[in-house]
Amino acid sequence: MQELKLSDWLPTTNKEVKIRGWEELDVILFSGDAYVDHPSFGAAVIGRILESYGLRVAIVPQPNVNDNLQDFVKLGRPKLFFGVTGGCMDPMINNYNANKKRRDKDAYTPNGDIGFRPDYATTVYSNILKEKWPDVPVLIGGIEASLRRVTHYDYWSDKLMPTILESSKADMLVYGMGEQPLREVVRLLQKGVPFNSINTINQTAVLLNKDESIPKNKNWEDVEIVSHEACLQDKKAFASNFKIIEQESNKLAARRIFQKVGDKTLMINPPYPTMTEEEIDASFDLPYTRLPHPKYNKRGPIPAFEMIKFSINIHRGCFGGCSFCTISAHQGKFIASRSQESILKEVDTVANMPDFKGYLSDIGGPSANMYKMKGKIQSICDKCVAPSCISPVICSNLDTSHKPLTQLYQAVDNHPKVKKSFIGSGIRHDMLVPEFNKNADPKELDDYTEEVMTKHVSGRLKVAPEHTSDPVLKLMRKPSFSYFHKFKERFDKINVKHKLKLQLIPYFISNHPACEAEDMANLAAETKDMGFQLEQVQGFTPTPMTVATVIYYSGYHPYTLKKVRTPKTRKEKDEQHRFFFWYKDENKAWIKKTLNKLGRQDLLNVLLPENDSWRKNKPGKPKHTFDDAIPFNQRKNKAKFRSKKKRR
């Protein structure tokens, strides 16, 4: 690999700008993350995209907001605009856990150090820039801006907030993945069009003053949602907005959305069509160094970079539409897949890095096994408004063939320097179950599962059934837990066939809307009965732009406007979470008391029977490996669980 020079990174200081021989800059980017020049880091992608249009671009990573604000003026005034992002994660999720306690690590900062990213970073950075440079346009983007583009519930302040355009004072918001709208913004600016006249670009949002006229576009239909002020007064009205927002975000021919915010009008233009293979390849093929900026060499490793250093992202988007997930809200539900040639080119680049040892940590995406999947008949997709392509059932028009992905894995493994490639991204196990994926070729599904288990897992396969309760799963837009049982049967057969000792690690969520204590008790009992002692568990965290968060705040389902109860108090949340850890001595008396009070002795007999072999284990250690004998009472207890659910 050719030795890199400082000028191979985008400049971050005046000295680095001078090294390139530049006298002025066209665009200056501000980011809440440390600068890692890699296609998995949004600020680097946007910087390289702008650079590819011939612009002189610099980046100010993690500017200091606690001093004299020198970082916001040191590079001077850009010719075109400032770009601002809070980073790869919403800063509030990055800074706080589900219990609103400040985290002790920031994965996007050298050494995991905290304190380098302010809360609500996009708003903080943008306001400072507007104060320092009032006549320079500010364009905001990234996941924080994208998910806060309309009236939204903010869990950390426990209140509704208006569009981030209002609080940040920014001139334009780019939502979703930024390559396509930025290309058009730059094209118009280079033609001499004033920034404040650019307001009809797809996938952008602007806040119009009361004296500004609505821009005309004969190709767009319009829809108005309930105003911000009405949302503040009526939770049901707020909930009703979300159905429109989600459907229009995922339509190929979407309407333009308007919302009144005080005496201003928010205008959200329709999204671009899904990126073509050629477009997404072009983004990944840009000249990234794939390394953190040298300025961090003495500060320690950046955890998020170390995690993805030897990984390959093969597609964007997710058609799962899970109620608690923001991926489709930001990346869209339609899959944008890279070509095999582009992926193999990146594999070769990684394989020739000096510290590569032969192991790729991940060949994946938002969901590992959606590569190359799309509608069989495009005209059907063009009219679709469903937020998920696989809930409540897999769409008959969806091509779920895993053959291209299996072939890709095999092509990657043929590289002479690759000893093994792992699948670290989450796999949609339900799509590998023929009883659920009825239109797929069962042999093809088995071939993929076998390929993954025999060649791409280090010992544990992680999947996310999320819950065992059918009502909760329905609200989550996840399939019945019965399909997890089916998948485990296939998993166990392959384990036996190949004499493997792989473990199946299921992920679950507590405190989700519609989830009651009894549901969590059933989850604990049913998974224990399957031979699991849960490790990978989490509490539901309300994040902007999800169905589950709208329900959490408003109490109403946005699609039906029917009431849905959600555990909200700290006591309720802690108690639901305790069921995950039934095997800990400090929880046993409480579980016994709770289940007796609920009249669920059947669950109590499963979790804490008098002669329980699990009691002999140390907390946190499973008695059963995940592929050996299942407790004898499985069938009997499973029948009890199902009958109780049906009665409810």
UniProtKB/TrEMBL annotation:
Residues 304-584 form the Radical SAM core domain. It comes from the Bacteria. One of its GO terms (molecular function) is catalytic activity. Residues 611-648 are annotated as: Disordered. PROSITE patterns: MTTASE_RADICAL, RADICAL_SAM. Keywords: 4Fe-4S, Iron, Iron-sulfur, Metal-binding, S-adenosyl-L-methionine. Binds 1 [4Fe-4S] cluster. The cluster is coordinated with 3 cysteines and an exchangeable S-adenosyl-L-methionine. [4Fe-4S] cluster binds at residues 318, 322, 325. The keyword Iron-sulfur applies. Residues 635-648 have a biased composition (Basic residues). InterPro entries: Elp3/MiaA/NifB-like_rSAM, Methylthiotransferase_CS, rSAM, rSAM_horseshoe, rSAM_sf, UPF0313, UPF0313_C, UPF0313_N. The keyword S-adenosyl-L-methionine applies. Its cofactor is [4Fe-4S] cluster. Belongs to the UPF0313 family. NCBIfam families: SAM_YgiQ. This is YgiQ family radical SAM protein. It comes from Snuella sedimenti.
